[in-house]
Write a structure and sequence with these properties.
single chain; alpha/beta; five-stranded mixed beta sheet
Length: about 170
């Protein structure tokens, strides 16, 4: 399993940006981990959160199903889950406090199996579906919620796709 840890630095003596960590916990499909870092970093930059970091983990359906059972109360896999640190019901959990203060927004978890199925259904390349999920999950971590914001997140997501994906 691959792990890539990137803290992009300008190379001009300035402090490095917050960490974008990518964890690949699956072997079903190759994922361009460095491109995932670049895309997440650019999304954060464009939404005014260049000071923030996050973690993206690629998993299989079995693990995603388990996460959905544990955290959402239903027994099936989904394509993406976002675990924002600021969503704790009682404020920031004590063990996340240091990371939140350092600008770490949380975790995006992507099931490559479900992403592959959805890509086929939508007539998209697998890689493009992964890019869509990275944008979607990153926006959720930044506090956007398409279920409650009268279309704001969906409009922003379309705008980012048009600007960042070729």
């Amino acid at each position: 399993m691959s792990t890539i840890r990137r803290s992009a630095s300008s190379g001009n003596g300035k402090a490095s940006q917050p960490l974008i960590e990518i964890l690949n916990r699956q072997r079903l499909r190759p994922v361009d981990l460095q491109e995932a870092v670049k895309l997440a970093r650019e999304v954060l930059h464009r939404i005014g959160r260049a000071d923030a970091g996050l973690t993206i983990t690629f998993i299989r359906d079995r693990a995603m199903r388990s996460l959905n059972r544990q955290y959402r109360g239903f027994d099936k896999p989904t394509d993406v889950l976002s675990f924002a640190y600021h969503e704790s019901p009682d404020g920031f959990p004590e063990d996340f406090e240091d990371e939140c203060e350092a600008g770490h927004l949380g975790d995006v978890v992507i099931s490559v199996e479900t992403a592959e199925r959805y890509a086929a259904e939508l007539g998209l390349a697998f890689e493009r579906e992964i890019e869509h999920l990275i944008i979607h999950g990153t926006l959720h971590l930044a506090g956007y919620d398409h279920e409650t914001d009268n279309g704001e997140m969906n409009r922003l997501e379309r705008k980012l796709r048009k600007a960042l994906l070729r």
